[in-house]
Amino acid sequence: MVDTRTQSVSRSGVAAPRFADGDLYSLAEKHGTPYFLIDEATLRRKVSEMEQGFSEYKGVFRVAYSVKANFNPSVIRTFASEGILFDLTAPSEVVFVQKAGGSAENVMYTSITETKAEYEQVLKMGVRKIVVASHTGYLNLAEAASKLNVTVNAMIRVNPEVHVHAELHGSMGHGKFGLQFNGGSQDSALVVLKKVLGTPLLRFEGFHFHLGSQIDDPSCYAEAIEKLEAFILGARRQLGEFRVNTIDIGGGVPVPYGRKVPTPKDLGDKIVGQLNSLVESIGDRFMLVAESGRFLTAESTVLVTRVVNMKRFGETKYIYVDAGYNVLLDSALLKHEYPVDVVPGGKPSPQKVALVGRLCDPLDVFPISSRSKLGGAELGKLVVFREVGAYSLVMNMPFHSQPRPPVLMRGSQGSYSVVRKGQDVERLFADEGGDCLSN
């Protein structure tokens, strides 16, 4: 098991992975910098935290991993071995899950485009639980099921239209996702539910909603569940009895990133009692699903870079590292503040410090978290960005002809391995069309 001396405690009160300085330098010498480093034990621990947070639910509770957050095959394989579900939105994600050891039986497929061709493709891959979020999506799924003569467990994605205090919103005016409960058009949950219930090869499975990302106040879940309960009871009065087998409350459990945030237990304490009451109210002991991508992966991973230049400009000390926002794109797009450490550290600098990347772009300046410790920075020292396991790897881009860095993993027993080879410039040149020059 991982030595607890290599861990620290985050603002959420949960141990975050730490790596021995000597290991970080040895890996830098062997693989170069920058590189990503994933801790397998943390991935598994985050699943356990989610499950413990909802342990008081009276029915079956399942964690679903949103693969869009990090589709590295070793990450997927780790979660597959935990037996959790996978929340997928593209046929290519199904390919990744199956090749990494996951099963189509554990896939919940939520398309955005909902085309007939897409549904045919995933049905041929064995996916049978599909979420629809539009009337056109229903029609396309029904046609695909009929063409292939397969029975599909169809869920309906609703937009509860509740106010969400979060970094990114998926409700209340964000109509891209889900159906209104009673919108007065064919794209309303009631109309689509009626159609699903009346379609022979579609077996109604349940409801899905997603309120947002980095939700600071879990009370929005309580309001959404209250609205869903009222809708179910009202729909039964109009359409007759139907069974609810699954309710998916989406993601949104936040990552600390240097501040105190609600934990899965906080969320569970807030809404599990209400969910148990919902079971009694509708008479169905439904399977409860909570999705997470960011929460399950963010704290597991660090980005290791090296100080390659330093200068003083006025009252500011500039620290240049050999990584740019091409590997941490949301630092530029969302001004995301990752906790950053110098390894080994030193006394805090009396000067104002700016941490900048190697790109020729004025946006390539990393916002500094209140948890960052940049004292002791010197040429050649390592700088470690923490909690970067969600959306960083999947957003790597080759700006300035920068190849993708390698990704390493520390296994549960403490050994290190390469889980994504670093891309060399020759491969990048070929991928960008260089191999077409001779044609």
What does this structure look like?
The protein has about 450 residues and is an alpha/beta fold. The chain folds into 2 domains: about 5-40 and about 300-435, Lyase, Ornithine Decarboxylase, Chain A, domain 1 (Beta Barrel); about 110-290, TIM Barrel, CATH 3.20.20. It has helices at about 20-30, 40-55, 75-80, 90-100, 115-125, 135-150, 190-195, 220-240, 265-280, 295, 330-335, 425-430; strands at about 5-10, 15, 35-40, 60-65, 85-90, 105-110, 130, 150-155, 165-170, 200-210, 210-215, 245-250, 285-290, 300-315, 315-320, 340-345, 350-355, 365, 380-385, 405-410, 415-420. The strands form 4 sheets. Strands 3, 14, 15, 16, 17, 18, 19, 20 and 21 form a 9-stranded mixed beta sheet that branches. Strands 4-5-6-7-8-10-12-13 form an 8-stranded parallel β-barrel, surrounded by 4 helices. Strands 1-2 form a two-stranded antiparallel ribbon. A hairpin with an 8-residue loop joins strand 17 (about 350-355) and strand 18 (about 365). Helix 8 runs parallel beside helix 9 (about 265-280). The model is unreliable at about 1-15 (pLDDT under 50).
Low-confidence stretches: 1-14
The CATH topology assignment of the largest domain is TIM Barrel
What is the averaged pLDDT score?
92
Summarize the amount of helix as a percent range: 25-40%
Q: Outline, from the CA principal axes?
A: globular
- Which CATH architecture of the largest domain is right? Alpha-Beta Barrel
The CA-CA distance between the termini, in Å, is 53 Å
CATH homologous superfamily identity of the largest domain: Alanine racemase
Largest sheet, in brief, is: 9 strands, mixed
Name of the CATH first level of the largest domain: Alpha Beta
- Rg from alpha-carbon coordinates: 23 Å
Helix vs. strand class: alpha/beta
Please give the domain count. Answer: 2
Q: What portion of residues belong to β-strands?
A: 15-25%
Per DSSP E runs of 2 or more residues, the count of β-strands stands at: 21
- Helix count equals 12
